[in-house]
């Protein structure tokens, strides 16, 4: 006998809310989008990870962590990286 999936037919938002992880999932998704945008801007300008690390006065490993959006990536780190490639990070309440 097969068990019916209790989440079958629910939306992703309702599933994440029921599991108590909606806000964490949204925060991670937003961080990944910003990291992707940062990497795309670096490609557009021909900036390497090593060059960005030098501009940020940090290690290339830290730049890798920022671009992978893994670990404890702070808003401050994303803002600094964005500014160093000529962009601005904007956060707003909606």
Short description:
The protein is an all-alpha fold and about 90 residues long. It has five helices and no strands.
Helix/strand layout:
Elements: H1 12-19, H2 22-45, H3 49-56, H4 60-68, H5 75-84
Helix pairs in contact: 3-4
Topology pattern, helix = H, strand = E: HHHHH
DSSP E strands, number: 0
The CATH topology turns out to be 434 Repressor (Amino-terminal Domain)
Low-pLDDT residue intervals, each spanning 5 or more residues: none
- Total helical elements: 5
What overall geometry do the principal axes of the alpha carbons give? elongated
Essential attributes:
94 residues, mainly alpha, 434 Repressor (Amino-terminal Domain), 5 helices, 0% strand
Overview of the molecule:
- 63% of the residues lie in helices and 0% in strands.
- It is an all-alpha fold and 94 residues long.
- The protein has one domain: 434 Repressor (Amino-terminal Domain) (Orthogonal Bundle).
- The longest helix is centred in the middle third of the chain and has 24 residues, at 22-45.
- The protein is elongated, with a radius of gyration of 18 Å.
